[in-house]
Write a structure and sequence with these properties.
about 20% strand, Aminopeptidase, elongated, 8-stranded mixed sheet, binds ligand BES, Leucine Aminopeptidase, subunit E, domain 1, 6-stranded mixed sheet, binds manganese (II) ion, binds zinc ion, alpha/beta
C-alpha cells in the first residue's frame, strides 16, 4: 500500500479527487464557513452523527466534495487509540466497495494532531484494508492501493508518519507469511524470504540446514524436525545500524511451519490453525523489513528456528531424551511441547553475540490463550529494565503485553529422573512452566519471552494473522536507538558512574 502525507485543511480535503474521503471528526468539532464543514456541523446538530469512535455517517455525491463518497468517522478525543478505532471502522465500511484511492483527513483538531495518532491512522488503514492474496489471487482486485493522510501540519508529524509506513511494510510481510498455508510456507521458503531481506542495505542473512545444525549440536531442535520430510532451517539475520562493537538486541522467533503435535498428536478440529505456529518467526521477518526502511542506529540480530512438527516412523517419541546445544539433556515427555525445544537451542546460539538483550517470540502455549485471551501477549522476564521497556513499548504501540510470574517454584514439575529437565510439567500454569523451561537456557543474558499464542492470529470468520507483536518490538527498538543517541558512550569511563538503563 502506498501512503502520502499532506498538509490539508477541510477545504483542501474537499477538493481532493480521491475515490473515498474519510473525515476523522474529533470531539468539540466547530464548523467553519466552508460547505463540507457545514455539512458535518449539521449532521452533528441533527443528531445523525456523533464524534464517538466507531460512529460513521456516509455521504454520496455530496456537492461540497470532489470525492464521490465521504465517510464521517467519529474520532473521539483524537488519541492514537480512538483514531485507530475510527480508521478501522471507516476503512472497514468502504473496503468492499470500489474505492482504490482513499483520503483520510483529520478535521476540527484546531491544528493539533499528535504524531502517535497519525502513526495509528496509517497502521489502522493498512490493517483494515489488508487482503490475503498469495493463494487467492482473485482477491487482488479488492485492494486499496493509495492512502492520502491529511493533517494540519505535515512537517510536525513527518517522523511518526514515516515510522508508521515502515511498520506497515513489516506488518504486511509478517501477515503474508503467517497466513500462508504450511505447503506454501515451508522452512526453506521462510529462509528464502530472509535471504531476500538480507540483500537490503544494512542487512545480512545466513541460512543453515540440517548438516550445520547437527554440527552445532542442536539436538533438541533436530529432534522436533526429524519427523518431517521438510528439512529444517536455522536463519540468522543481522541488521547493523551502529558500530560493530555495540552489543546487539537478539530477537528469536519460533518458526514451526506446521504443528501437528507430533506423536502426541493434536485433535483434528482447528488443527489447520497450527500453520500459524511460525508467527513468532514471521514477526522477526517483519521487524527486519521495517528496520531496513527506518535504519535506526542500533544493532539487531534475528534468529529463526524453523521446522515442521510431524508424526512419523522417525519422529521423536514421548520419553526420548535428547541433548540440547547447551549440553542439558531433555526428556521429551510430550512431543507437542515442541516450541520450547527449538527455542532452547536458538537461545543457546544467541549467547555468541554477547547480546544486550534477547527476546524470544513464540506461539508457545494454549495456556497463555486461556490466561490472557487475545488482548495482551504474555511477557516473561526476570530482568526489570527489559520488562519495563517492553511493557511501555506495548502500551505506546497499542500492542500491549502483560507481565507474568517466573517464581522458581513453577519449575518444580519440570524435574525428571531421566534427564536434566523434562519438556512439560503438569497442566497448571502451563504458560509459566514453558517460560521456566526457556529460562534455563537464558541465564547468560538479559532475557524476555513473549508468548503470542493468543494475540498472533484471529480465529473464526476473521481468521488470519494480526502481525502482533511487530508494533511492540519496533517501538521497543526505536526507543532504544533514540535513548542511545542521548547517551553518547556506554563503554567510556565518563559514562560508567552514571547508570543509564537502556535495555
Ligand atoms: N503451538 C502450540 C501452542 C498453541 C496452542 C498456540 C493453541 C495457539 C493455540 C504449542 O506447540 C503446543 O502445542 N503447546 C502445548 C503444550 C503442552 C503440550 C504442554 C499446549 O499448549 O497444549
Ligand atoms: Mn505443539
Ligand atoms: Zn507449537
Amino acid at each position: 500500500m502506498n501512503f502520502e502525507l499532506k498538509s490539508l485543511d477541510l477545504a483542501g480535503a474537499a477538493s481532493d479527487p480521491c475515490d473515498a474521503l474519510i473525515l476523522l471528526v474529533v470531539d468539540g468539532f466547530k464548523p467553519d464557513k466552508t460547505a463540507l464543514s457545514g455539512c458535518v456541523g449539521d449532521a452533528i446538530a441533527a443528531g445523525d452523527f456523533e464524534t464517538k469512535p466507531g460512529k460513521l455517517l456516509q455521504l454520496y455525491r455530496n456537492p461540497a466534495a470532489a470525492a464521490p463518497r465521504v465517510v464521517l468517522a467519529g474520532a473521539g478525543d483524537g488519541s492514537a487509540r480512538q483514531v485507530r478505532q475510527a480508521v478501522g471502522t471507516a476503512v472497514g465500511a468502504i473496503k468492499s466497495g470500489p474505492a482504490r484511492r482513499v483520503g483520510i483527513c483529520f478535521v476540527g483538531t484546531r491544528g493539533k494532531v499528535s504524531g502517535a495518532a497519525v502513526r495509528a491512522a496509517v497502521l489502522a488503514a493498512a490493517d483494515a484494508s489488508y487482503v490475503y492474496t498469495s493463494t487467492k489471487p482473485s482477491a487482488e482486485s479488492r485492494k486499496i492501493t493509495k492512502v492520502l493522510v491529511g493533517v494540519p501540519d505535515a512537517a510536525a508529524v513527518q517522523a511518526e508518519f514515516r515510522h508508521g509506513v515502515a511498520a506497515v511494510a513489516g506488518v504486511e510481510l509478517t501477515k503474508e507469511w503467517a497466513n500462508r498455508p504450511a505447503n506454501h510456507a515451508t522452512p526453506a521458503m521462510l529462509a528464502d524470504v530472509a535471504r531476500a531481506l538480507g540483500k537490503r542495505p544494512g542487512l545480512q542473512c545466513e541460512v543453515m540446514g540440517p548438516g550445520e545444525v547437527a554440527r552445532l549440536g542442536m539436538g533438541a531442535f533436530m529432534a522436533v524436525a526429524q519427523g518431517s520430510h521438510e528439512p529444517l532451517r536455522f536463519i540468522v539475520l543481522k541488521y547493523q545500524g551502529a558500530a560493530k562493537s555495540q552489543a546487539p538486541v537478539v530477537l528469536v522467533g519460533k518458526g514451526i511451519s506446521f504443528d501437528t503435535g507430533g506423536i502426541s498428536i493434536k485433535p483434528a478440529s482447528e488443527m489447520d490453525e497450527m500453520k500459524f505456529d511460525m508467527c513468532g518467526a514471521a514477526s522477526v521477518l517483519g521487524v527486519f523489513r521495517a528496520l531496513a526502511e527506518l535504519k535506526p542506529a542500533l544493532n539487531v540480530v534475528g534468529l529463526i528456528a524453523s521446522c515442521e512438527n510431524m508424526p512419523d516412523g522417525r519422529a521423536v517419541k514421548p520419553g526420548d531424551v535428547v541433548t540440547s546445544m547447551s549440553g542439558q539433556t531433555i526428556e521429551v515427555l510430550n512431543t507437542d511441547a515442541e516450541g520450547r525445544l527449538v527455542l532452547c537451542d536458538a537461545l543457546a546460539y544467541a549467547e555468541r553475540f554477547k547480546p544486550r538483550a534477547v527476546i524470544d517470540i513464540a506461539t508457545l502455549t494454549g495456556a497463555c490463550v486461556v490466561a490472557l485471551g487475545s488482548v495482551r501477549s504474555g511477557l516473561f522476564s526476570a530482568d526489570e529494565p527489559l520488562a519495563r521497556a517492553l511493557l511501555a513499548a506495548g502500551e505506546r504501540a497499542l500492542d500491549p503485553c502483560w507481565r507474568m510470574p517466573l517464581d522458581d517454584e513453577y519449575a518444580e514439575g519440570l524435574k525428571t529422573n531421566f534427564a536434566d529437565v523434562a519438556n512439560v510439567a503438569g497442566r497448571a500454569g502451563g504458560a509459566i512452566t514453558a517460560a521456566k523451561f526457556l529460562q534455563r537456557f537464558s541465564s547468560r543474558f538479559a532475557w524476555a519471552h513473549l508468548d503470542i499464542a493468543g494475540t498472533a492470529w484471529k480465529s473464526g470468520a476473521a481468521k488470519g494473522a494480526t502481525a502482533r507483536p511487530v508494533g511492540l518490538l519496533l517501538a521497543y527498538l526505536l526507543d532504544l536507538a533514540a535513548k542511545e543517541a542521548l547517551t553518547p558512550s556506554k563503554t567510556g569511563k565518563s559514562a560508567s558512574k552514571k547508570i543509564v538503563r537502556t535495555r
